[in-house]
Amino acid sequence: METETIIETTNLTKRYGHQTAVNGLNLKVKEGEIFGFLGPNGAGKTTTLLMLLGLSRPSKGHATVCGLNPLRMAREVKRHVGYLPENVGFYEDMDAVQSLEYVADLNGLKKVEAREKIDELLGLVGLKDQAGKKTAAFSRGMKQRLGVAEVLIKDPEVLFLDEPTLGLDPEGAIQLINLIQSLNEEKEITVLLSSHNLHQVQKMSHRVGIMIDGSLIAEGSIDSLAEEKFGVGEKEYSLEEIYMKYFQEA
Amino acid sequence: MQGLYAVFKKELQDHLSSYRFVILFALIAMVSFITSYMAAVHMRENLEGLASTRFPFLMLFSTPGAMFSMVQFVAFFGPLIGLILGFDAINRERTQGTLIKVISQPIYRDAVINGKFLAGVTTIAVMLVAIVLVISGFGLAFVGVVPGVEEIWRLFIYLIISIFYISFWLGLAILFSILFKSIATSSLASVALWIFLSFFISLGAEVVANTVAPIDRKNEVQPEVVLENARIKELVSLSSPMILYSNATATIIDPMRKTTRSLILMGPMEELLSARFQSPLPLGQSIVIVFPHIIALIAITLICFAISYVVFMLQEVRT
Questions:
Q1: What is the per-residue pLDDT across B68-119, written as a single tens digit (0 to 9) for each?
Q2: Model ipTM?
Q3: Domain for residue B104, yes or no?
Q4: Residue A33 CB-half CA count within 13 A
Q5: How far is residue B188 CA from its own chain's centroid?
Q6: What CATH superfamily is the domain A5-249?
Q7: ABC transporter domain: from which residue to which, for each copy (chain A) (predicted)?
Q8: In the A/B pair of chains, how many CB contacts fall below 8 A?
Q9: Chain B interface, mutation test: which of A106, A154, A160, most B Cβ atoms within 10 Å?
C-alpha cells in the first residue's frame, strides 16, 4: 500500500556555534504510521523536532510538514502538529481543567466547544477524577497524561512525542503506549516518537530511524534493518541488538 | 490576535490574583494614603489666612507632608511595581517548562511577550488609577476641595506619564528575565540597575560636575563656572529615568513651577520678588515645558520593550 509522505526533510542541518547538532538529515515519515526516532542523548532528536515545528531555524536545508514549510508557516504547521516536549511543564497554581482551558484558548477554541473537548479528553487519558486537582500535586504519570490531553485539544494530524514514557512506572508506560496506539489506529494520527526504551519502540513502531551524532544512519522497518545487519527477520533479533550493532559500527 | 488575547487574559488574571500584587498594592495604597493625609493636614494650616488658592486639589498630591509627597513617592518606589511584575516573566516559564508548550501552540511567538507586557501595563494602570481616585475621594471628603477641570486634566496627564514611567521598569525587568536564565539573577540585576539609575546617578552628577567645572569657593566665584557646573549636573542627572519623571510630573502637578531647571544665582530679594508675584502657569504652557521629558520617557519605554522583543524573538528556545 502506497501512502503519502507527511514529513520530509532534505539536508536539514542545525549548528550551534561550532557544534553541529543535526547534520544533513534526510528523513521521511509516512502518513498514518508510528515512526520511532532512536539515538543516544544529544544525537539531535529534539533539535530536529523543534526545526520541524518552526521553533528553531535550520542552518541549512529545509523541511516540509503536512505540505507546509515550518520556517515560513510556523503557525499553520503548529495547527496540525501537537508537540509533547520531554519534561512538559505546567502552571502549578492551575488545576487540570484550567490548564487545558488555557491551551484551548491559545488554540482559539470557543468556550463551549472547549468545555466539551476537555471533558472528552480527560476521560480519554483517565484524569476525570483528578480534574480539579492542582497540577503541582500531579505525579509524573499524571503529568504525562495531562500533557497528552493538551496536545490533543487541537485535533492534530501529527504528534511529536519526545520521550513520552521516560520516568513512568511500567503500568503507566503501558497505559500511555496503548493510548498512543489507539490514537494512531482510531484517529489515524501520525506519530513521531523519540525514545530510549527500545523494547517499547519495537512494540509500537511501524518504522524506525536511528540517529547518531546528528546524522540518520538507518531508516526502515525493524525487519528490514535486521535483514540488513544480520540477514534475518525481526523475530530472531530484538531492536536492542540491531541498535547496538549500528551503534558500534558508527 | 487570538494568541495575544489568550496570553494577556491569563497573565492579567495571574497578576491580579497573586499575593505579590495584593501585598504591593496594599503597601503602596497605604503609603500614598498616609502622605495625602499629611498633605491634607498641612494644607488646612497653609490655607488659613489666604483669600484663595487656585489649585488646592493638586496640593493633595504635591505637598510634602511629613517626608515626601505622593508624587515623589511614586517616583521613588513606583519602579518597584514594574520590577516586581516583570522580573520572572520569561525565565520562570522557561524553567518550569511551560514556555515551550505555549509557543508550540498555533500562535505567533511575539504573542507571548506582547501579552505579558500589555498585562503588566494594564495592572500598573489599574493600580495607579485606583490610588489616584481613592486619594481624590479622600480629598473631597476630608478637606472638602472640589477639583476643577484643569486639575482633572493635570491629574490625567500625570497618570499617563506615571504609567509610562513604571512600564519602563516593567520592560527592563522583562528584558532581564529574557537575558538571564535564573530568576535570582534577573531580580537582583533589575533591582541593582534601579538603585543605580535612581539613587547613584544624582550623586554621580554632582561628582562629574565638580570635576569638570569646579567651583572655587575661596576666590571670587565666577558666574560662568557656576552656570557650567549646574548645566553639567543637570545633564548627567537627566540620564536617570527617575529625575526625568520627577521633573516632568512636578511641573504638571504643580502649576506654580515654571521651569524644570533649578534657579541659581538668585539673591534674596529676587527670590522674594518671584515668590510675591507668582501666578500659576496655564496647562498648555506646563506641557510645553516638560514635553521633551515626556517624549524621552515614552521613548526609553518603547526602546526597552523593543530590545526585549527582538532578543526574545531571536533567542533559541532551547538553551
A1: 788 888 898 899 999 999 999 999 999 999 999 999 999 999 999 999 999 9
A2: 0.90
A3: yes
A4: 22
A5: 20
A6: P-loop containing nucleotide triphosphate hydrolases (3.40.50.300)
A7: 7-238
A8: 69
A9: A106
